[in-house]
Inverse folding.
């Protein structure tokens, strides 16, 4: 009884574009999750109606509060439920009476508890939902985030710039970490959903939705278990050809898989199923949150990009030779190329840069002269003009620049790169290896992120991500 | 004509414990390397005499300045030379006349330039050194750093706490990055040396010295090429059995190797030689600066440690389930174990932590209750008492704690871990995955580093480093 794709878009409309949200159980006690969910909706300035449900209050955090869902005069699209699992059945009756569309259950204590009662209760809530005409996200989850309508992710009121990446995650924490680390790096999400145990709506539903969602161009997935392997396989193969999909599977080892069962009651599948998923569907597979963030950033930036030829530039300030040598190792061992510059390029670089301490082949070591904005800009122009080069990578050591040269000079270097990138140039990627921590580093990296220039903490991480993206883009041609 | 080990210690005494240093070419122009070297000696409060040499000044940056080395009344142990390569021969005559011991040549433009003149000039300076009775470090290098006598590394006046790690590097920049990133992480160095082209003193000399140096317990090496493979092999095999050695080889790929030749004139050797080096000598091999820092930190902390059994704790504040699952994957796939807790441990954890949202096996998810210092401390005590556990790893998300709970509560959590670690407990390792950047994170991570608790940015990086160290320690038993 599969429903059609376009039906899925309509069916999940109240999950991703709710006009009204009610938080059940909010009491004003700031330590309780219900209040944190409510506060986040207020902080984020959610573009819809917000209500609280609590029989003992008429107002919580300044929000009009009703004793039940069914006593709210407006129809409620999306309910956030944080009440204990023992009171859940009475609550679901209220949901039915009120005619709500989506119930997101933060509440835990179901099948993931591995107790007969928890397992039975989970079966029962699904039965109630089907009977009552609403759908459940969860239980044991954080639910939906939609930047477009200022619908915050769970208990944090943070709303980033609307982007094109949808992330669906069995774990609420994994999505939260990605969202927060992505915030400073300019990884922009369209939507997110964490679905925990996925007892009703699950991975396949959300994946179908994101496949059709016009705001979503890239899909990231963190998954601990699958229920319908064949359907997922077919779906991934069909999605991956037109939207890049990055999949991180938690629970791939024995201990991880046992933990996954206690976490989201996931039945992690055998190795063969997962291998087939990545090898035959064209998805990108990752094995950590860092890798996931890195590759989503590269996908966002290098849309359809298939160029393999990287120019690596180091030595802006202090010795760049070791960076040049070791980065050449990392880039080429990932399958990228560092072609030797054309004679024209080398000639012009030799005329511009100091003869001693520089390396004029590619990788280029600027011999500590690149901290001068004029020289840096001119170097970028020369390298950009080289027909053998597709992409420019610059090792900046922003912490070190700030430590040694101070704010003004470092900001001028960053502005130079930004000014260059605004011309009709080849893509620029910045490496900023951490040094003695300088807070201004975040500000400057933020400026780069704001204009869409990706920043990586090491050449290794950049190389790995870019190579994955280029491989994917080649395959999708 | 190999000299004996103890002779090496005496011979290199003026390199690592100079009583007097002269900077040749300093003029007061702050942009010039000579002045930056001189300023760094002053900033670091070098425990010895400092002189400048410049015929046109009697004082530079407040330092007594002489026209030549030979006109300085005191005998000079260590000379820092930043003058252009064309004036180098006259300068070396002055070195001979003055009876200096060590000449560190920052000056570049020798064999790494790949020109006949550069190559010939390098041969000539070695000839002059042998004739004049002094040794050369470099050319094209940053030279020696010794924390014990406040001898700074190159042009930065930064002096960290004296430690037990010696780092020898063909690249000045690689050593600089390691020093700076290590500064905030509590990676403490005894000595460092970057030797560039290594035309006279080279890797083998410094490795012999560090092997004997009583202040050095751990040796890190960044190397782009080797001249005497058999000698290096024998030496590494003999050192590695009593001092851990970590080797990162730059120039392992074709393009990297070509860049290495332009960087330090290194003749990178074939793959087979390097494989033999790591497989048969018991050294730890790394392929990036991040990995080098990570593993040095683990070596410093886990002296002789061979325990494989990790307890992983997550869920201090928000959802720790995904962290638990994915970290179990990362730790076990690196060969570490996460044994299930003993029944006693599980019983006590169940009595302490919230029933819903927690995972009571190992990995442990504290179900968002670990932000309370009393509960965290008690949990650590319970886990510590489990005889199946050797090492405790805690996922803290310090950025997120600061964002959500503020400074005071986060500092209290950090203090709890520090207080726990001060008891007679099992080693603790902290994971602090970056979130929305908070500057206080560095302060708090610094507090952990100050008491010797290692902090890693991801479980993956911690797992990889710890596993390498344990494998090495097992082998050295």
């Amino acid at each position: 009884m599969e429903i059609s794709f376009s039906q899925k878009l309509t069916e999940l409309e109240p999950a991703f574009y709710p006009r009204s949200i009610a938080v059940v159980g909010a009491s004003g006690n700031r330590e309780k999750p219900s209040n944190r969910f409510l506060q986040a909706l207020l902080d984020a300035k959610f573009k819809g109606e917000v209500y609280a449900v609590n029989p003992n209050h008429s107002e919580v955090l300044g929000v009009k509060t009703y004793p039940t869902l069914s006593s709210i005069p407006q129809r409620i699209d999306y309910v956030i439920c944080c009440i204990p699992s023992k009171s859940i059945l009475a609550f679901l009756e209220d949901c039915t009476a009120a005619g709500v569309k989506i119930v997101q259950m933060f509440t835990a204590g179901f099948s993931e508890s591995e107790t007969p009662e928890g397992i039975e209760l989970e079966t029962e809530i699904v039965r109630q939902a089907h009977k009552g005409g609403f759908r459940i996200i969860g239980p044991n989850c954080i639910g939906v985030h939609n930047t477009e309508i200022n619908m915050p992710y769970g208990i944090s009121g943070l709303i980033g710039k609307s982007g094109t990446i949808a992330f669906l995650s069995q774990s609420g924490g994994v999505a939260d970490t990605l969202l927060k680390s992505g915030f400073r790096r300019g990884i922009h999400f369209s939507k997110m959903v964490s679905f925990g145990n996925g007892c009703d709506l699950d991975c396949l539903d959300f994946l179908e939705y994101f496949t059709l969602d016009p705001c979503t161009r890239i899909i990231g997935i963190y998954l601990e278990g699958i229920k319908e392997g064949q359907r997922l396989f077919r779906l991934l193969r069909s999605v991956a050809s037109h939207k890049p999909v990055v999949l991180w599977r938690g629970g791939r080892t024995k201990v991880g898989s046992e933990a996954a069962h206690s976490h989201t009651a996931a039945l992690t599948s055998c190795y063969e199923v997962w291998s087939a998923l990545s090898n035959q569907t064209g998805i990108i597979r990752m094995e950590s949150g860092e890798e996931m963030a890195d590759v989503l950033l590269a996908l966002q930036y290098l849309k359809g990009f298939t160029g393999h030829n990287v120019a690596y530039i180091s030595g802006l300030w202090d010795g760049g030779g070791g960076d040049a040598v070791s980065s050449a190792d990392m880039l080429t061992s990932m399958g990228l190329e560092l072609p030797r510059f054309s004679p024209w390029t080398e000639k012009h670089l030799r005329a511009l840069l100091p003869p001693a301490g520089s390396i004029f082949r590619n990788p280029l070591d600027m011999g500590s002269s690149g901290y001068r904005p004029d020289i840096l800009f001119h170097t970028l122009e020369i390298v950009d003009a080289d027909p053998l080069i597709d992409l420019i990578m610059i090792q900046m050591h922003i912490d070190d620049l700030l430590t040694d040269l101070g704010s003004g000079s470092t900001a001028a270097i960053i502005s130079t790169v930004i000014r260059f990138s605004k011309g009709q140039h080849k893509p620029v990627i910045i490496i900023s290896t951490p040094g003695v921590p300088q807070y201004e580093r975040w500000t400057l990296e933020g400026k780069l992120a704001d204009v869409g220039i990706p920043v990586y903490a090491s050449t290794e991480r950049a190389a790995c991500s870019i190579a994955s993206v280029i491989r994917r883009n080649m395959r999708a041609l």
Notes: DSSP finds 17 helices and 18 strands in chain B. Chain B has three domains: 5-137, 143-301, 310-476. The first strand of chain B starts at residue 20 and ends at 24.
